[in-house]
Amino acid sequence: MKYGKSVYRAMAMVTQFGINMLAPIFLCSFLGIYLDRKLGVSFCMVILFFVGAMAGFRNVYLFAKSIYSMKNERDTKVKGTGADREK
Length: 87
Prior knowledge:
mainly alpha; 3 helices; 87% helix
């Protein structure tokens, strides 16, 4: 079965959302585990996990915002504005 480009773009975006969310969480969690073992404490992992989660949410928000703004620009170009028609 042959799919259109939009299906592959959607799959790529979903994958990017996942990577943008999970990468900071894993990196900060592993750094927290390392610091917990190195320093002999037990709170660094929890703190850095939440820092990673916040960074992941920020990444996803910025990515979604950029996709939304690109879509709006594309729609505006297709519809055309009054300034575009005068040229």
